[in-house]
Every structure is written in C-alpha cells, then in structure tokens.
Amino acid sequence: MYYIIEDTINGILMGSIYGLTAMGLTIIFGVLKVVNFAHGSMLMVGMYLAYWAVTLSGMHPYLAIVLVAPAMFLFGYTLQNFVIKPIFIAEKNVREPLTVIIVTTGIWYILDNLTLLIFGPQYRSLADNPLNGQMLEIGEMFISVPKLYGCITAVITALGVYWFFQKTDMGRAIRATSMDREAASLMGINQYKIYNVAFGIGAATAGIAAVTLVPFYNVFPTVGVLFDIKGFIIVVLGGLGSIGGALAGGIIIGIIESVGPQFMTATWTEAIVYGLFLVVLFVKPSGLFGQKHDW
Amino acid sequence: MVLLEVRGMTKEFGGLRAIDSLDLTIEKGQIFGLIGPNGAGKSTAFNCIAGAFAPTAGVITFNNETINGQKPWNLCKKGLARTFQIVKPFASKSVLYNVMVASFATTNSRQVAEEKAIKVLESLNFADKKDILSSNLTIADRKRLEIARALATEPKLLLLDEVMAGLRPNEVDEMVEVLKKIREQGTTIFVIEHIMRAIMALSDRIVVIQFGKKIAEGTPKEIANNENVIKAYLGEDYVAA
Amino acid sequence: MNYKNINKVALVAILLIAFGLPLVIRSATYLHILVLLFFYAYLTTSWNLVGGFAGVLPLGHAAFVGIGAYTSTILFLQYGISPWIGMLVGGVLATIAGILIGLPTFKMRGAYFALATIAFAEGFRVIVENIDYIGPFKINGPRGLQIPPLDIGLANFMFASKEPYYYIILIMLVAVVVLTYVISRSKLGYYLNAGGEEPEAAMALGVNVARAKLIAMAMSSFLTAMAGTFYAQFTLYIHPKSIISLDLSFEIAFIALIGGRGSIAGPILGALLLRPVGDFSRIYFGDTLPGMHLIIFGLVLILVMHYQPRGLQEPLTRLYNNLIRRITHNTTGR
What we know:
The complex is a heterotrimer of chains A (295), B (241) and C (334). Chain A is an all-alpha fold and 295 residues long. Chain A is built from 11 helices and 2 strands; from the N terminus they run H-H-H-H-E-E-H-H-H-H-H-H-H. Chain B is built from 10 helices and 10 strands. By secondary structure, chain B is of the alpha/beta class. Chain B has helices at 42-49, 72-77, 95-103, 110-123, 139-152, 169-184, 196-202, 220-224, 227-234, 237-240, and strands at 2-13, 16-27, 31-35, 57-62, 65-66, 80-82, 157-161, 188-192, 205-210, 213-218.
C-alpha cells in the first residue's frame, strides 16, 4: 500500500512539473488563440541554456532561473515579433489563422534540427549537481527531492503568473485582449505588442520548467517533442487557456504515469493517457476545469 | 396572418438578463422595426430568434411551429434568414460564390443555385459585381452582399441587423428603396436599426426595448411621441422640455 | 485556340507523359522515387478534402494510413483475403475512426481538432507498438508485419516489377484528383469552403457546418487508408514507426500547405517540389549534416506562409495563365 501512496506523491510532483511545461502553451493559446507547436522546442532550448549555464559556471541548478527565464522571455518575444507577427498581420481578417499554427511547426522543426546539428544527438545530464538522486525519506516512502523542488517552483510560478494577470496593468491589458481583441484595440491597446509579451511570458515559463527539469532529466535535441504532445493533452484536459487547469491536467497525467505501472506495463499507461484525452474531448470538450465557452 | 410570434422570451448570460420576457407579433407582409439604445439587447433578441442562442425561457412560434432552440441551418431552411451586424462575407470568394452558398439552401444542383444567385443579384442591382472578391467590396456593398445572401435562401422572414450602419445618407435612401422592394416581392422584414430616419420611413410597426424589456410599441408616429422612448434615448431632462 | 482548349491540351499532355514515363524510365530506383512521389501526392490530395476545403488542420493522417495498411495485411496474412478487399475494409474502419474524432471536435475551435488528431494518431501508434495481438489478429508490436512475396499477381496486389505499382498509384491519384474537382464544384464543396471561412455566417445560410466537415473527414480517412494498403503491398513490410509516425502526418500537411491547401493543383505541386528537396538533401547532407532536410522544410514552410499564405500554387497558376495568354495572343494576332 505504501507503494501506491509513494507513487501518487511522486506522480503529483512530476505532474506539476508537466503542468509547468504546459503552462506557456495555455497562456499563449489563451491570448493568441493559437496552439504553439514550437512550445516543446522552446522548452528544449531552455534546457540547453540551463545545462550550459550550470555546467560552465558550476552554480546551483536553480540559480539558473535568474538567467534562463529572462533569456527565454526575450527569445519568445523576439520570435513572436519577427516571425509570427507578420503572419497575424497578413491574416487579420481570418478568424482563426491556421497559418500561424503552421509557422510554429516550422519553428519547431528548425529549432530541433539546428540543435541536433550543433550539439549532436547525444544525451547530456547534470550528473554531479547537488540535487541529483536526492531522496527525502518519510517513513518507508522515498520522495524525489528535485521533483519536490520542481513542484514548489510550479506552484509559485502559477501563482506569480496569476497575480501578474490579475493585478498589473500589463496583465489586465493581456486579459482584455484575450477576451476580445477588437474591443481591446479600440481601447488603445496594441494587440501585437500584447501578443509579443504573452509569447514572451509563455517562453519564460518554459524556461523555468526547463530549469526544474535539468537536475534530473536528460537533455537532447528532441526532448521537446515528448513534452509537446504531453502538453497538448494536458491543456485540453485542463481546459485550453486555464492556468490552474494546466497544473491540474499535468498532475492527473503525472499520477496515471506514476501509479499505472503498478497495475500494467508502463507503455500501456501512455495509451490510457491518450484514451483519457479523447474521452474528455467527447464528454467535456472545454476541459475538466475550463469555464468559458471559448472554442 | 401571424408569421412570427414571440411570447415571454428571456435570455440570461450568467446572472445578466439580456432579454426580459419579450413579446412580439409580426404579421405576414409587415416591415417590423426593433429599436433601442446601445446594449438594449436587440442583437441578442435576433440571435435567439435565429437560433444562434437558445433562449432561457419563452416560446417562439414561426409559421405556426414552435422553433425554440432549433439550429440556425434548420431555421434557414424553414424560411428564416438573417444578416449580421458585423458583416461576415466569405472573404476569399467572389460575390457570386457567396450568394451561391446561400442559394444551395433550396437546391442541390449547382446550375440552379447559380441561376437563382444571379437572379437575386440582379434584383439588387448587384450583378455587375458578381466576380469581384468579397474582401475587395466597399462597406455599402458588403452590407448589400449580406442581404443578397440572406435573400438567396428564399426566406419568408428576413432578419436585418443594422444593415444601414456606416452608410452615407444617399446610400441609406437607396437601401430603404431596396427593402421596400423586397417587401413588395412578398418577404416579411424584421429590422434592427439605429438610423431613425430610415426606420421611421420603413416600418409599419415598431417595438422599443431598453435593458432587455419592451418599453413601447406602436406605429412610427406613436413611437416618435412616446414619453418613455424619448426618456430612454435622450434622458429624463428632455421629457419636460 | 482559346484558353479553355489550351488547358485541355495541357492536361491531356501531362496525363500522356505520366502514363508514358515507365516506357522511358527503365531504372527501378527512379520508378521507386516516382511511385513514392505519386503516393505522397495522393495522400496530400486526400488530406486536402478536409484540411484544405473544410479549413481545419488534421495532423494525424498517418493513423489512417496505418489502419489501411494493417487491416489489409492482417486479412491477407491470416485469412488469405485479397488486399483489394482488405483495402476497402481498411477504408471503412478508417472512416469510422475519422468520424469518431470529428464528431466532438468539429463544433469547436480548429485547435481542438488539430490536437485531437495528433493524440489519436499517437495513441494508435502506442497501442500498435505495444501489443502483439488484438483478439485473434496478429499485430506483432514494434517488429511490424512482413508480407512474403509468394503468390505474385494482380489478385494478390503483388508484382515483381515496379511498373504495375506505378500505374496503380497513378490511377488512384488521377481518380482522387477528379473526385476533388467534382466535390469542389458541388454543394458540399461550397458548404465546406463557407463553413471553413465563416462558420457563423454559413450556419445562418443553411449550412450544417459540422456535418459537412464530417462528410469530408469520412471521405478523407477512407481514401487515406486505401493508400496505406498500397504502401503495404508496395514495400511488403510495415511497422508502426514507419507508417504511423508523427513525421508522416506532418509531412502530408506540409506538402499541402506549401503547395496550396484548398486548391486542386496545390497538393500535387507541393509533392513535386518538396519530395525531391527532401530526397536530395537527405542524400547529400544526410551523413554530414543530420536533420538538414528538416531545417530546409521548416524554412520553406515559414517563408511560404510569409509570402504566399495560400501556397505556391497561387503564383504558379498566375505564371501559367500569363504564359497561356501570351501564346493565345500571339496566335490570334497572326
């Protein structure tokens, strides 16, 4: 029985990190109404940044947040401003420009394969970082310390993003744009600048997620794809556009992946996750925690 | 003969009551006007009648059939067509293509659909622009395209949502003539409009709503002299004066 | 000669060249490349029925290829049923799957449909990769299925040379292009385009948008599954990583988008342009610069979306029309 509790706790911890990786996806969708297929690749870029920052300087892995999060914000901001924005402008008459989704797919292909070209296909890991393999012993249970740190970081990030959207002027402008872009632009809000900032914030959360992953997860060029597809499932489960939903969706998947192998082959849990996704689409398409009829 | 009857129609969004037990009766062959200040719930009323939203309460009868909560495409086939306040042309397609989508509502043959579409365009003096991309049309022509599409579905009742907004005065006069012509050809018209001059000239009967509630009903003349209406539009001060 | 006649002549000329090519090209390697090119053009044209006309973005069509390939192969290996019949059975199964995905998602924003198709395809791949049997049917997990080339002949959809495959896929391609043409000029075609562009307006004009999309999706999945059977018979070996991969799903979408979705020539042009780019950069950069062809794909995709969001068929059609106009002008001028 202890195993189940232990697995559940570790599942919740890993799941909240999944939620953190998907948070940017849901933020960007909420504002731009576009699924960012390059999100996993941004996470991958963040992981390489964190990996090299820690490796070269020898700093504590979590200190890399100070560097990676702002760098990723800039990266996302620039990417949106120079590559994605022109498409939005060209298609401003289109209700839901699929061309933007396609461009993010192009960015994904380029980022992943450029990384492959530069760093090669090998797996890298921060073998001798202070968090590696650390376990917390509670009774007979072992709880992974880096995942615990990741979980705490995810919750803090979610609260921070929530606070930003509720309390700051920029946050309010972003929310206004996400509700009605025409009305917001009539109020003098520059829609495209809002998109840049939202994209930047999405990228920054991916950067934070990257930092939490690097102490215990391998870094390689296609690492983003795993999180990409997981992220899509998470945000639909939680409700596209909902930040709390992303966290909840991530935790659900984390628990299934962690507890599932007690009862079946590990690979089958993957199939269960996909099945759950399709069931939710049928039964409650707005997601388990999505409130608004925004589809 | 009564074509459309609305009894006690209510629509709530969350806690907000956008329409509050509205009653309307439209006779066949009428031009019926619906006016009210901004945000009074006019478009919401249209959306409920045309099937875009299901009303929270009330009964809508069209052509002796209850149509509450029916889907817009089925209502369209039953003879209820509408235009949108914010025009929605199929932007990458020509005017003719746009109208043909609508004329397919009553036929499966491409040839018949094309003939009908051209006939509608001709009746609106619009046929010379049939090959223009709808995204290249002027505002006035886009409004005209909205009407052409709605007409091509061969409606018994035409719901027009502010088809004159944004038009120049001479274009408004033109539109008034167009609508009169449509009525003469046997289509009943239910119109939301902001331009008082036009709606007063057109309507046989007008309903005024404010905050989702009916505050007056009558002929254009009666409405123009109604105290409640003047209050709603101009504020309390003007009533005394 | 007027414009319409020239178009007809050009069309006949292209068809004659396509059907005559195997008489000139004797190399099995080149024929193989051509067969795959037509295979991709066929897949993309089938994709285009829903991805182009209906204005949504399916990103899991590899699942239908997989359903087609596995169905006909299992029926043939275990029950000796001709792949020609298996092709139709696979089509029906894929249609059911396509409708099941479309049913909940076509009423929502396009993003949901795109994500649902990916999840379905990935889920299907995971299942196929992880099980050896579904009931009595042998799937054989990640090892895939091999078709022993014993009874060669038309009835078994198996041939010793490339030519028969070439003609089969060419005829399939021509058929699906004709079908697309007919649909684009029919009520369904108008309804799909309208519903894809402005769903609200379309609904108000009598269009049941979700139903039109479902019909398109059903046809598209059926046709895609048929290509799966063709691929299985052509290579005589299928395994989940090769035919149910996300890469295949995305490549189909990329070809359509770069060629021009929603148009009839777009998917074919896209396959003609992109397949060789992929093949050659794989050959020339494959060892020294891994992934180079995917970087090129990504770049081309972004550039095309920037400068020709309706795809390359638009400027190419314009070029062709100008050329024809000049020719007709000169001949009538004489």
